[in-house]
Design a protein that fits this description.
Number of strands: 7
Helix content: 40-55%
Radius of gyration: 20 Å
Strand order of the largest sheet: 1-2-3-4-5-6-7
Distance between the termini: 12 Å
Oligomer: single chain
């Protein structure tokens, strides 16, 4: 089984060519899963062990965050959380945790709130881990930087209900939040140009429900997609791969994403989209990644996972353009034996 890291494998498949085998792809894998795989404790601080996991598991890259929000539990683990907590605490105790209400009003409800928000502090992105991993990276492995939560962070700062109302009642505020968030996230991508062994950028920004876009696509085209285009321009300067993640049904914005210049779409949400239809309609225009149902990985059997994985390899991989992985991410509650069944099947049966 060819599991040595080789980022050229991923680049080749995204050119719609057939490499030696189907690449494995994930934007996030829980530390508990990594720990079970290696048989030792892996945490956010154990950089060497993280590289050991991604290498031994058969990946060609390690994902690291270059923006304000991490994939996964964004309101718990991201750098913006500390900034928001300090803004929410105000006169409260220095250690008190104040709820961040992302469903209703968020932390910015007016132009006055916008002006008071500590944007300078929010813009101080941490790239230390990008330097810490350098000595541990095997020769063929690269970093893919996760970034791009522009829509997600904008509505979370405002609170979703307030965000939707403000689109009609105070659009100036919404525009200002999008502008500031976009500027900071783009600056995070630009910083990657000076960091060695960065191979790509993964824009992670959930835009859709299972039925379609969360808001009118015209809003994305006005306030979000121009920032993706800026990120795409930066990536072209250094020949970086550019991936896009959104859960849900993205058919209404598919042409926009292809025009922006993304090399691949993730995860082709199996609860909302038919990967065979995606392959048939746009498979020659853009790469496809993911699609193995997380619920199956959590509650199915290894044999069921193996059969679905082989089916995806058989139906989607021919001609290149496919990276296999989960239909979202690998959270800690996935069964390790099912995760192993998926990755081992790719390494055994995913050869061209």
């Amino acid at each position: 089984m060819n599991h040595l890291p080789n980022f050229a494998r991923l680049k080749k498949t995204m050119r719609h060519e057939e490499p030696d085998r189907v690449p494995l792809v994930e934007g996030a894998i829980g530390y508990e899963i990594q720990s079970q795989f290696l048989g030792k404790k892996v945490t956010g601080a154990t950089v060497g062990s993280q590289i050991e996991f991604w290498t031994q598991a058969g990946y060609d890259f390690i994902p690291l965050t270059s923006g304000m929000m991490d994939p996964g539990e964004v309101t718990k683990d991201s750098s913006i959380v500390g900034v928001i907590q300090r803004a929410l605490r105000k006169d409260k105790g220095p250690e008190e945790v104040v709820p961040w209400n992302i469903e209703e009003r968020g932390v910015i409800s007016s132009l006055e709130d916008f002006d008071k928000f500590p944007w300078e502090e929010a813009a101080k992105l941490d790239f230390n881990k990008f330097q810490e991993v350098q000595p541990y990276l095997p020769e063929g492995m690269r970093i893919i930087a996760t970034n791009g939560k522009i829509f997600t962070l904008a509505w979370m700062l405002l609170g979703f209900q307030n965000f939707c109302m403000s689109l009609y009642l105070q659009e100036e505020l919404v525009a200002k939040v999008f502008q500031k968030v976009g500027e900071i996230q783009l600056a995070g991508v630009k910083n990657l140009l000076d960091i060695p062994k960065v191979g790509g950028v993964w824009v992670i920004d959930d835009l859709s429900y299972g039925s379609g876009p969360m808001i009118d696509p015209k809003v994305f085209r006005k306030y979000v997609f121009p920032w993706y285009e800026e990120i795409a321009t930066v990536c072209r300067q250094k020949d970086l791969l550019l991936f896009f993640h959104s859960d849900g049904n993205i058919w209404q914005i598919m042409d926009d994403l292809i025009t922006i210049g993304f090399h691949a779409l993730h995860p082709i949400d199996p609860t909302a989209m038919d990967i065979l239809e995606v392959k048939d309609k746009v498979g020659e225009k853009i790469g496809i990644m993911g699609n193995i149902d997380v619920d199956l990985l959590a509650r199915g059997t290894p044999e069921e996972v193996r059969e679905l994985t082989k089916k995806r390899i058989r139906e989607i991989a021919p001609g290149g353009g496919y990276g296999l992985g989960s239909g979202n991410s690998i959270p800690n509650w996935v069964r390790i034996e099912n995760y192993q069944a998926m990755r081992e099947t790719v390494l055994k049966y995913g050869t061209y």
